[in-house]
Amino acid sequence: MPMKKSSTRSKGTIKVVTFEGGQKVNLGKGSFSNLILTSATLKGSNKNMMGYSVFTPGMDTKQKIHVNAEELAYVISGSGSITVGNKLFPFRAGDSLHIPSGLPHGVRNDGKQNVVMVFFFSSKAYPKTIDG
Predict the structure, then answer these.
(1) Which CATH fold topology does 23-131 show?
(2) DSSP label at 47?
(3) Which residue, 8, 19, 107, 119, is most buried by CB atoms nearer than 10 A?
(4) Segments making up each domain of the chain, as ranges
């Protein structure tokens, strides 16, 4: 059966950014984030951004608020909790997280191995973030 020609056209091209190709952000205690797919690496052709974080055992980040962007995350390895005020929302490898815009939150790794998560924001670059 012959293939039909598409009536739509591509608006861009595939871009590949290597694992090391983003902007590394030191979070302290050996923990870090790497902002991989952002307006900087994609030359502004994106509507969302993606990165990954590594949280070492014992890490408990300060609570932050992403002012105008929701956050989605997928936990690749490890376990811990999202802290919201004094409440804990446990997660483990394989879980997906949704953090609404404007919600103060932190990440706590109280396990014995690194927590590794891939995160996405509904913004072209890392969103405006303030202390929670």
Answers:
(1) Jelly Rolls (2.60.120)
(2) S
(3) 107
(4) 23-131
